Give the backbone structure.
Amino acid sequence: MKKTKKLVILIAIAIISVAAVFFAVKFIYNNRYKKRIPELPDLKTLSAALQEQLSDARSKALRDPSSNNLGMMWMAFHSSTLYEKAIDCYNLAAEKDKTKWEWNYYLGYIYKEMGDSKTAIDNFTLVTQENPKVYLA
């Protein structure tokens, strides 16, 4: 009976240890992205709806810096013509998930809007290398 009890305790300790290591690694990995999430600019000049959209997008990205949440933050910055902050978010999203060609596609368009044709073409070229069926790139 004592051996069974000790075995159960050892298994429980092992499971807790593995879970602790997993969460520590995930925290450290995500923290390096959280540190690079751009600060919100002075929002006084923006509409209340846009202020809320930017604040919500940043909160979600800080809570969970997934590629999608970083991309959503980019869209909020892009829609409010905060291009430099949008580029920072897209670069983070692209770095976080290198398998998503979409981030380079959107970067190409934002650089095109800013008049930087060379960088736009570079991003569109990356898209077509990754996914040749994206004819718009």
Q: What stands out?
A: Residues 54 and 76 are 6 Å apart (CA to CA).
